[in-house]
Amino acid sequence: MSIKKSILIISYSNLKNDPRVFRQIINLNKVGYQITAIGFSNPQVQGVNFIC
C-alpha cells in the first residue's frame, strides 16, 4: 500500500509569479506530493489545493 505524502507551502507572495516557490510547487507535484499552498494568489497548478 502506497501512502501519498502531503506538504503545506506557505509564502507571503504571488505563488505563480514567484519563481522559487513556483518551481518548488511544480517539482513536488511531479514527484507525487499532495500539495496545499497558501499565498496571495493561486499557483494554478492542476492537483494543488489553494487557500488564500
Textual characterization of the structure:
With 52 residues, the chain is α/β, with parallel strands linked by helices. The chain has one domain. It has one helix and three strands, in the order βαββ. The protein has a three-stranded parallel sheet, with helices on one face. The longest helix has 12 residues, at 19-30. The termini are far apart. The relative contact order is 0.31. The model has no long low-confidence stretch (mean pLDDT 94).
Relative helix content = 10-25%
SS strand fraction: 25-35%
Please provide the count of β strands: 3
Structural class: alpha/beta
Helix and strand succession?
EHEE
Count of folded domains: 1
Number of helices: 1
As a whole number of angstroms, the C-alpha radius of gyration is: 11 Å
User: How are the strands of the biggest sheet laid out side by side?
Assistant: 1-2-3
The chain-level mean pLDDT equals 94
Low-confidence stretches: none
Shape designation:
globular
Intertermini distance? 33 Å
